């Protein structure tokens, strides 16, 4: 398996950029898909955001300085793209980003790609009620099992603040699930 530094070297070389980028997509497509999907909810929207994410990564790979892990940098781009997508949709529909998320949640039941049962749907509803930062932290920790150290790089927040956000999020989700 190719190391991150070797992949990065190949991505920055004109001779191997295309094949290295295909490898990058192969390695990270599924993880980034589910990360974005947890934010935007819809399969079709996730595909659009994922495509935009990879376009941004391709265009900006030469400006990646290596201050963080490559995947942390890509997750940050994916997170920002997903949040931008929600905000653009909210602006277009002239509603809040929270209302946009509720709309996506309402459509989740009819999404042929959603394989969850009633419990999963209730969990998604509980998550949608959280502030955006808590949603991100909860999804990254609970669904993707991302370590706080890595999350700290991706979200540019201290590990302590992330742990507090996760704790608050789980309490709010528990409350929601017991009351509903």
UniProtKB/TrEMBL annotation:
Gene3D superfamilies noted in UniProt: 1.10.1740.10, Winged helix-like DNA-binding domain superfamily/Winged helix DNA-binding domain
InterPro entries cross-referenced by the UniProt entry: RNA_pol_sigma-70-like, RNA_pol_sigma-70_dom, RNA_pol_sigma70_r2, RNA_pol_sigma70_r4_t2, RNA_pol_sigma_r2, RNA_pol_sigma_r3/r4-like, WH-like_DNA-bd_sf
The RNA polymerase sigma factor 70 region 4 type domain, residue ranges: 121-173
Keyword annotations of the record: Sigma factor, Transcription, Transcription regulation
Superkingdom of the organism of origin: Bacteria
Signal peptide (from-to): none
Pfam families noted in UniProt: Sigma70_r2, Sigma70_r4_2
Domain RNA polymerase sigma-70 region residues, every copy: 24-90
Family, as annotated: Belongs to the sigma-70 factor family. ECF subfamily.
Protein name per UniProt: RNA polymerase sigma factor
